[in-house]
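Intended use. Records like the one below are meant for learning the mapping from a protein sequence to its folded structure. Do not use them to infer anything beyond what is encoded.
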Amino acid sequence: MASIITYKYIKQNPDIMEYIRRADKALEAQGYTEHSFAHVERVAHVSSMILETLGFDERTVELARIAGIMHDIGNVINRVDHAQSGAVMAFRLLDNLSMPAAEICSIISAIGNHDEGTGLPLDPISAALIIGDKTDVRRSRVRNTDMLTFDIHDRVNYAVEVSKVEINEEKTSIILNLQIDTGMSSVLEYFEIFLDRMLLCKRASQFLGLTFEMIINGGRVL
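Structure written out for the chain above:
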C-alpha cells in the first residue's frame, strides 16, 4: 500500500509542528540546548543524506526525513524516556493519518531507538537517525547568553564553530568534521559529555557497513 504522507506534508501539519514547538519549550524551561526546528530539520537532512548517498530507495530516504523531524516530540511529556514516549506519540499521529503500518513501524522504531541510553540501530532508518541526531553539536544550539554561567554542555556546544557530516568518496566512512575553539572547551571535555553518543554513532555506522571517523581541528581523533 502506497503512502501519501511525505516530509512536506508533515511540515505542514499544524498538530505535529505544535508538538515540536512545545517539546522544545519544555527543554528550554529545563535549561537544555535548542531542540526546535533548527535541530530536527538538520537531523532530517543528515539522516536522509546518509541513506540517499548510500543508494537507498526514495521512500526509505523520505521515511528517514520524517523520523528525523518527529524524533524529539516525546520531550513534551518528559526528557526521561523521551525516545519511547515520542515513538508512541508518533504512532498515534501517523496512524491517524492512515500511513501504512510497515512505514509507521520503520519510523517509530527509529524514534524509539535514537537515545544513547537505550537505543540501538535496528535498520537503516534507525541507524541514520542516530547519526543525524548525535552529530548535531554547534554554537547556535546554545540558548544561554551569559558565558559566565555556561555549564559544560554550553561550553562544548558553543566551542564548535564548524560541524559537518560527510560520507567519503569511496562510501566506506561517515566523517564528523568539527572545528573547535579550544580556548572555550577542550577536546577532552567534548568526549566527557559526548563519548556515549559517538560510540553509538560508531555502532550505527557499522550497521550501515561503514566506519565512523571524527576529525577535530584537522586531526583524526576517532
